[in-house]
Amino acid sequence: MISLWRKYSFSILFIILSLVMGLYLIFNVSEDDSTNIKITVQDGDSLWTISNAHAERFGMSTSDLVKLIQKENHLFGTTIKSGDELVIPGSYLRNNNKESELAFETN
Length: 107
Prior knowledge:
Strands 1-2 form a two-stranded antiparallel sheet. It starts with a helix and ends with a helix. Mean pLDDT is 79; it is low at 97-107. The protein is mainly α. It has helices spanning 2-33, 47-58, 62-72, 90-106; strands at residues 37-40, 85-88. It has four helices and two strands.
């Protein structure tokens, strides 16, 4: 038994650490999913109008938020339809709010 441990200890520890990290990532991602912001597209909305309305909230420029929305929703252009649901990850909002709070504290 001891010779088996000496021979495979690194492999066993690697597998255990991989499992622990995998479980951590699974539960960490599920928490972030619950804080996502869902936007339902209304008549007359475009990516630019939606981004313009929310850009300040995320601490981003309108064009950067358009790119983020396109990336996160797998959009290959700027065409959206009424009734579409767009998702903005809550992690972007959380990170920018922390930076804003720090900026206010230092002033």
